[in-house]
Amino acid sequence: MRRLIPALVVSLAVLWLPTSWGETVHLDEPGLWERISSYHGVPSASSDGVRVGGVRLARGVTACAPNTLVVGLHGEARRFEAKVGLRDVTSPAVVRFRVWRERELVWESADIVSNTPPTSVSVDLTGARYMTLEMTASRAFYTGWGVWADATLEMNPGKRPTDVAGLSRQLGILTPPPAKAPRINAASVFGVRPGNPVFYRVPVTGEGPLSIEVVGLEKAPGLTFDPNTRRLGGAVARPGDYPLAFRAKNAYGTAEKGFVLKVGDRLALTPPLGWNSWNAFATAIDGEKVRRTAARMESLGLVDHGWAYLTIDDGWQVKAKGTTPADRRAADGTVRSNGRFGDMKALADAVHAHGLKFGIYSSPGPTTCGGYEGSWLHEFQDARTYAQWGVDYLKYDYCSYGQVAYGEGLDRDICPYALMSRALASSGRDIVHSLCQQGRGNVAEWGASIGGHCWRTTPDRFDFWADVVSIMDCHAALWRHAGPGGWNDPDMMLVGKTVWGVRSGFGGTRLTPNEQYTHVSIWAITCAPMMIGCDLEDLDGFTLSLLTNDEVLEVNQDALGAAAAPIDDDGEIRIWAKPMADGSVAAALVNLSPLETEGRFCFVRNGLTGAWRVRDVWRQRELGTFERCFRASVPGHATTLVRLWPVGSAGLAAGLSDVRDNYWRRRIEAHRPLEGDKNFKASSATDCECVHQQRKEQ
Ligand code: GLA
Fold first, then answer.
1. Which helix (H) or strand (E) holds 664?
2. Residue pair 311/277 in contact by the 8 Å Cβ criterion
3. Residue 349 CA from chain centroid, whole number
């Protein structure tokens, strides 16, 4: 017996050890840390040493604050341990670290300054489905390189953490395959100035051969239509609205769509749709890539889905450094392109030949952000030159203007843009003016009034979920400034392969497929100018499907031009909605949680009465009729985009003007809950109980 007891203890211990010891996983292992949302620099991981506050630690993940990282634990983690601090670099900084156990803050550091020895963190994670690691930078220093050093997760035996994509099912391609019957994808309005050349290609999809006709052409004297190029051309001298219709026919059917050519002083009546070179190539753009991209936009069918602009961003002028003024401008002051672009008129013609409008980039300062020749003191001359070349769009980027600006407010922020608007308006060509100054001076409030057609609202965006969320937060209050002729611009899109993205993963971007659905849905429903930012010669099918969903683009291109407002929250589901020209409502149920979540768009709370027919916009599928609310299970970080049509006597509650009215109620309620406003308030729990009649399949 005496000998038996120790043997029993040993064998019990052997049985017990594997289950209790668990596994140690290092945060710097591939697959865990790459999706850190780090705005100012590329995060990195090292397993052979990192120095923090003069101490050398074995390994770590380094990222520029502010940043966040979501790690999927699936209830299988026990503990997180790390040492935190700032990487030893010369520039001083202050960073604060936080650990969130799902939505609960479980650990927070003090403000840690450079050259402080590492601080230890140890957090119990039992049962947590995910955790978020966060670094914030002190305002005074703006950024700082923080390190999660020797960071480990203790997991249950045989279990591993995942990145955020592993926390929820990921959506695949939802866009249905292209239909064979014709579909006219044009917005139903287009604005041109009296007497200026009209350049408009009718976007139509469907199997060829397709014949396209314009009905009512004779009512617009001077307007021409070439059925081969599908282009409206000529010029219309007399201001006014010219109602036309497009008719497309092929072996599978006929499509017809009403269209109004509005000849007046307003351009960009719907948000510009196009491609911009910056996110795809940065300054490594050249004329050959422009030509090839234009051809790709046509051959991929993007032009037929309504993508109408191709814009060359920074890098086409002559670089200021190492050149003389005579290298940068001709004797008469005409701006020159650099050797990579050659004759700009020929390049514009080549782009136009693919049915695309041609865009260009400059700065009100002496140089562009990349150090190329800007338009300072040459504004009217440059606008005239652009018009001669055939430019249709100008992105005008603040860059070095701060060096030559004087004063504050009006002089600093508004004048350079007002001046270029005047120059473009008198150039003799319709040139859309895109103000790019990262939201300075509350540009959304005055951009349209000084002749801007869209205005960047934030600094540059990268392919991080945190960037998509911060765009939503920023645009939450800006929607009321957008409308026909002037749009809030949240920056170029980050789906597909960009110069910033990772080369592996979902089409080349760090965004998960679900996050990409949210990205595109939000750009669409907030009426953002949508500028594709990826390399179209290296495009995967998933990314193409995101860009060619005609019903999604229709939400963006609706003639009413109403940008969505965030009207309600249901837990972590945020509901954005907007009215559409045909009386329907477009709504996005955005899941801010990384976990699949059920969300309800509650009709009574939001001033909708009666029953509504609901259509899934991405899947282009009818979902049935809903009363009281529409309910959907939304995968982590994804968005369900729907359109709702009132059935019978359904509509908005008496006295409401549109579905966005609830935005104001929410803001008031945030401070003081309202009682008894019948238009909105759910009077009982059953008001949010959905009644759903499935559509009978025909
Ligand atoms: C700024 C703009 C970008 C891009 C670059 C070009 O950063 O915000 O969109 O145009 O300049 O240098």
1. helix 661-671
2. yes
3. 30
Q: Give residue 650's identity as a one-letter amino acid code.
A: A
Residue with tokens 């650099």: 338
Beta strands 253-263; 565-570: pairing state: unpaired
How high is the mean pLDDT of the chain? 92
Regarding the beta carbon of 499 and ligand 1, being less than 6 Å apart is answered: no
Closest alpha carbon to 548 in 257, 270, 185, 189: 185
CA 446 to chain centre: 22
* Nearest CA-CA partner of 253 in 186, 207, 216, 213: 207
Tokens of 538: 């290296």
155 Cβ closer than 6 Å to some ligand 1 atom: no
Identify the CA nearest to 192 among candidates 136, 237, 251.
237
pLDDT tens digit string along 335-373?
Answer: 999 999 999 999 999 999 999 999 999 999 999 999 999
Give the separation between CA 274 and CA 357, rounded to whole angstroms. 9
Nearest-angstrom CA–CA distance, 172 and 287? 35
Is residue 97 a contact partner of residue 151, using CB atoms and an 8 Å limit? Answer: no
Of the candidates 181, 249, 185, 183, which has an alpha carbon nearest to the alpha carbon of residue 211? 249
pTM: 0.94
Determine which residue's CA is closest to atom 3 belonging to ligand 1: 460
The CA 314 to ligand 1 mean position distance, Å, reads 7
Name the DSSP letter for residue 129: S
The residue whose CA is least distant from atom 8 of ligand 1 is 460
Kindly report the backbone phi and psi dihedral angles of residue 602, in degrees, each rounded to the nearest multiple of 5, phi listed first. -85, 120
Please identify, by atom number, the ligand 1 atom nearest to the C-alpha of residue 395: 10
